Write a sequence for this structure.
């Protein structure tokens, strides 16, 4: 009675719940490690571009002057290499896959104006400090040169 | 004597979603000769090594195949590690072994389902894939990806399998083992399965050896070629024997793969029991300089990796020979003298992955 071999399975399947889920009415449950999509804490980003250089599918774009971080989610292969490489750990891999869209587009993240202003002030202060240091160094060099010349003059006399 | 005629099989054919073209020379209903033709999905993955640095390439190489993806990533990083003389921690070796064996299980269950589908046993196909789903859930739990793992890196692995995950794996394996026994009863005992598989496409040991057949396809003909006995990663520390059959027909190939499922379950249990504590990776600095040939056992057979590097971020040359490529010669031999109706089954018995083959 070979045909009855599956009979227990048939009975089990008749009374058991479906194996599949009624998605999307019933939301999908992802494990904690699920590699769905990349998120960024944009205000912590220092626009170093490590993620851009590490991305295997070249899907990221960073512009330091504009404080911009952009990702083309349809090209992203969710490998997680940028998350591993990020020196500030501001990139995160979150569960939940990319939703369908009518056209391919880039998702752009911009830093908040307050952070941009603070960064600009910080950069200006750094530049000012560097300029002062340079000026001081030049003055020191000039003084030293004058001293050397004086010593040479004295020696000639 | 009947007139010879040629029937084109593929590149688009309902039984196989991948593009391989075969010119079948037939006499009446019998295949006299099969002339293969590949090259429909060449992607140039090997050429990409000149454009992306070797660390970025890890994630691209593992996308060579959608089934044995972990093995490709592992084979590639292992080759680079050999060039750079990096000894990875023991824990990383065991973790790689566990993931490789889970990948083998999901590949074999997928194949068993496709085989059942090819001879029209739809319910068996769904039963196989239902079991496979549990293995995919384990992949997602431990690595975050259902098919593409992305856990390898030069110097070790990125993610760990925690004790809770180990327990989940062992529990699932107990369930899966029971379900595979049910599947095995049907595959091995059902007369309709036997009538489609027994004595179909016989390949003798001599023929298999001469044509360079590898993997379960060669092992079913009695050729004990299993690269895992080489002892790479943690296989040297585990106890197992290559599984072989002597019949060399399609039924033996099915039998071999089912027995390999039990072998994989056994290997994962051994690896979890023996896995030492320790680091996941060692830091690697610098660029590779040199060349290396590496062979690992994929679910479909032996895969060969060749890497040549000249101390730059980009590799100079990368070559990957996948198991399907080696088995196409054997496939054409088994097709000789086969019924036209058995051609789809015979093509499936080598477990073809054409996208892999063309990289």
């Amino acid at each position: 009675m070979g045909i009855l071999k599956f009979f227990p399975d048939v009975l089990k399947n008749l009374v058991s719940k479906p194996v599949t889920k009624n998605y999307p009415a019933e939301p999908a449950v992802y494990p904690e490690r699920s590699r769905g999509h990349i998120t960024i804490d944009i205000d912590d980003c220092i626009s170093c571009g490590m993620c851009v250089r590490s991305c295997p599918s070249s899907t990221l774009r960073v512009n330091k002057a504009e404080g911009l971080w952009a990702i083309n989610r349809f090209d992203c292969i969710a490998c997680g290499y940028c998350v591993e490489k990020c020196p500030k750990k501001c990139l995160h891999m979150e569960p939940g896959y990319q939703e369908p869209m009518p056209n391919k587009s880039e998702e752009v993240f911009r830093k908040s104006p307050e952070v941009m202003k603070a960064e600009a002030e910080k950069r200006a202060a750094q530049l000012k400090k560097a300029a002062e240091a340079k000026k001081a160094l030049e003055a020191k060099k000039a003084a030293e040169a004058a001293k050397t010349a004086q010593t040479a003059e004295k020696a000639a006399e | 004597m009947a007139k010879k005629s040629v029937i084109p099989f593929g590149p688009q054919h309902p039984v196989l979603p991948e593009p391989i073209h075969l010119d079948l020379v037939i006499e009446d209903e019998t295949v006299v000769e099969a002339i293969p033709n590949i090259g429909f999905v060449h992607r140039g993955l090997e050429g990409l090594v000149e454009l992306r640095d070797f660390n970025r390439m890890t994630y691209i190489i593992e996308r060579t195949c959608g089934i044995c993806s972990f093995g490709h990533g592992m084979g590639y990083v292992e080759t680079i590690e050999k060039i750079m003389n990096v000894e990875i921690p023991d824990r990383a070796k065991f973790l790689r072994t566990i993931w490789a064996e889970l990948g083998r299980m999901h590949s074999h269950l997928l194949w068993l389902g496709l085989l059942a589908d090819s001879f029209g046993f739809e319910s068996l196909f769904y039963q196989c894939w239902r079991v496979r789903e549990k293995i995919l859930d384990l992949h997602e739990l431990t690595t975050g990806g259902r098919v593409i793992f992305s856990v390898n890196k030069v110097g070790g692995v990125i993610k760990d399998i925690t004790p809770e995950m180990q327990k989940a794996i062992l529990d699932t394996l107990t369930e899966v083992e029971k379900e595979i026994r049910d599947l095995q009863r049907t595959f091995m005992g059902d007369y309709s399965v036997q009538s489609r598989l027994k004595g179909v496409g016989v390949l003798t040991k001599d023929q298999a050896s001469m044509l360079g057949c590898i993997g379960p396809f060669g092992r079913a003909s009695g050729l004990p070629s299993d690269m895992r006995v080489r002892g790479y990663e943690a296989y040297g520390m585990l106890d197992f024997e290559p599984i072989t059959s002597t019949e060399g027909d399609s039924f033996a190939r099915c039998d071999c793969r089912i027995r390999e499922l039990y072998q994989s379950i056994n290997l994962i249990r051994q690896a979890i029991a023996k896995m030492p504590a320790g680091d996941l990776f060692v830091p690697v600095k610098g660029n590779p300089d040199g060349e290396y040939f590496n062979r690992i056992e994929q679910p479909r057979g032996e895969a060969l990796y060749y890497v040549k590097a000249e101390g730059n971020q980009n590799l100079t040359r990368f070559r990957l020979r996948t198991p399907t490529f080696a088995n196409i010669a054997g496939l054409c031999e088994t097709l000789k003298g086969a019924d036209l109706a058995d051609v789809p089954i015979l093509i499936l018995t080598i477990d073809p992955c054409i996208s892999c083959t063309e990289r």
In short: Chain B has a mean pLDDT of 87. The CA atoms of residues 138 and 169 of chain B lie 7 Å apart. Chain B is about 45% helix and 15% strand. Chain B has one domain: 43-344.
